[in-house]
Design a protein that fits this description.
Length: 125
């Protein structure tokens, strides 16, 4: 079965950088999409960035130019490099996966993803 395990995160001052990683396994097909979502206290979970099965990357507007998502298919690892962090980036960050191509219309939609990691905390002060 599909497993997603996040690591990284932590605490940093505003303007600093952090990275989070997600090791995934168990996707039954070569086509899959993976992404990062986040949830701040008292708020709904929102998409941050995603990589679709064709390698295309997608970002929510609030992180464009600051965050970079990347994927190492050999290591089966998804990365999120976060620069110029702001206090509003504080949240639990979740890795998500789907066992198929998500498509540009849905790649940043929570409903496209079936599999979720346990989350890793990012705190910006």
């Amino acid at each position: 079965h599909v497993q997603l395990v996040e690591s990284g995160g932590g605490s940093v001052q505003a303007g600093g950088s952090l990275s989070v990683s997600c090791i995934y396994s168990g996707f039954p097909y070569s086509q899959h999409c993976v992404g990062w979502f986040r949830q701040a206290p008292g708020k709904e979970r929102e998409a941050v960035a995603a990589v679709d099965s064709d390698g295309s990357t997608n970002y929510t507007d609030s992180v464009k130019g600051r965050f970079t998502i990347s994927q190492d298919n050999e290591k089966k690892t998804l990365y999120l490099q976060m620069n110029s962090l702001k206090p509003e980036d504080t949240a639990m960050y979740y890795c998500a996966g789907a066992s198929r191509a998500c498509g540009s219309r849905y790649v940043l939609s929570e409903s496209a993803y079936k599999y979720w990691g346990q989350g890793t905390q990012v705190t910006v002060s």
